[in-house]
Amino acid sequence: MFSQTTEYALRVIVYLASRDGEPSTNKQIAAATLVPSGYLAKILQTLSRGGLVRSQRGLHGGSILVRDPVKLSLYDVVKVVDPLRRIETCPLALNWHGAQLCPLHHRLDQAIGEVEKTLRSATIATLLAGRNDRRPLCPNPSTAKTTR
Questions:
Q1: pLDDT digits (tens, 9 = 90+) for 27-38
Q2: 121 belongs to a structural domain
């Protein structure tokens, strides 16, 4: 249901939130999130345009999360990267449906609405507050030294 880009963006946001405002280089982010480094720049650019991330070049540069993880929902991130598309009119453009969706498209739209509701209710901070052994992006032995 979610694009690979959305998955990558969520990983990047969670990682940056775990850094408590400390800038992270693209190399650090790529290693910690397993996002291909060649694709990471595009994702960071999208997140920056969406007002979620700020990047700075230079010796002490890197990327940081600019939104408070307590107030930043998963929906906010998804909306910036690849917004959920609600079904408001017949996707088949069938005139006889009028303003009403058929039962199939109505049900699909309800499902999209439930996903949206779930994403809105989950913040980045709640993901990081989970049990330590099940936190997102727990360091593994191969990345523990490169993520901080």
A1: 999 999 999 999
A2: yes
Token pair belonging to 105: 């498209």
The answer for residues whose C-beta is within 8 angstroms of residue 128's C-beta and 6 or more apart is 14, 17, 18, 69, 135, 136
This prediction has a pTM of 0.83
pLDDT tens-digit series, residues 47-75? 999 999 999 887 778 999 999 999 999 99
- Chain-centroid distance of CA 115 in Å reads 14
- Give every CB contact of residue 130 below 8 A, 6+ residues apart in sequence: 136
Query: Is 148 part of a structural domain of the chain?
Result: no
Residue 74: CB atoms within 10 A of its CB come to: 20
Query: What number of residues does the chain have?
Result: 148
Q: Across-strand partners of 62?
A: 56
CA distance 33 to 89: 38
Number of domains in the chain: 1
Q: From CA 93, how far away is CA 82, in angstroms rounded?
A: 23
